[in-house]
Amino acid sequence: MGKLREPLNEIANCGLPAALEAIGERWSFMILRAAFNGVRHFEEFLSEIGIARNILANRLTRLTEAGILHRNPCPDDRRRVEYRLTAKGLDFLPTMIALRQWGERWETGVPSNPVLCDERDRRPIMQVSIRSHDDRILNNMDLCWIDASEVSAKATEITPEERSKVRKLGSA
Predict the structure, then answer these.
(1) Crossing angle of helices 42-49/53-65, nearest 10°?
(2) What is the C-alpha to C-alpha distance for residues 144 and 141, in angstroms, rounded to an integer?
(3) What count of other Cβ atoms lies within 10 Å of the Cβ of residue 63?
(4) Do 95 and 68 contact (CB within 8 A), yes or no?
(5) Which distant-in-sequence residues (6+ apart) come within 8 Å of 17 by Cβ?
(6) Domain-by-domain residue ranges, the chain?
(7) In the predicted model, is pLDDT for residue 172 greater than 50?
């Protein structure tokens, strides 16, 4: 039996294409970035991120339909609408931070200012990383694919036969 790998042609069962479909493209990321920074109203989004009105309306609708943003009329002025991140939207924060850190390292080459910090200690956050069940930091050579039916919540000794069935991420 060959080594297991992710079934690349089965995109219907993969969370990555589904996530990309829900989030969309660059302007959706910029809207989410603004929402994470406390922007709530259509006109604020327009002025803060410099997006065209029709594109903003389209992306806000898509993000709302995907359950990432929630649209509420403002209590003090029912004609005004407020957009807030849902629990689903808030769960996207680690992804946004990871993308920002990656862009700082590989694209701009400079750290962003202001710096994202832990509110309690007022110290910069760590790099987003992949962590094992016991909190070790992992890299691509520490990862492998295992069939879901064989994954156990218990830590067990891996036999040589089981080890031969796995394929390390990034290996041929």
Answers:
(1) 120
(2) 8
(3) 24
(4) no
(5) 11
(6) 8-91, 92-128, 129-168
(7) no
pLDDT in tens, 100-123: 999 999 999 998 899 999 999 999
Q: Strand, coil or helix: what is 71?
A: strand
Q: What is the token pair recorded at 85?
A: 């991140």
Return the amino acid letter for 76.
D
| More confidently predicted of 116 and 79 | 116
| pLDDT higher than threshold 90 for residue 154 | no
Q: Which CATH class is domain 8-91?
A: mainly alpha
Mapped onto helix, strand or coil, the DSSP state of residue 144 is: strand
DSSP secondary structure, 73-134, as one string? E-SS-TTSEEEEE-HHHHTTHHHHHHHHHHHIIIII-S--SSPPEETTTTEEPPPP-EE-TT
- Is pLDDT at 29 greater than 90 in this prediction? yes
State the CB neighbour count (10 A cutoff) for residue 70: 15
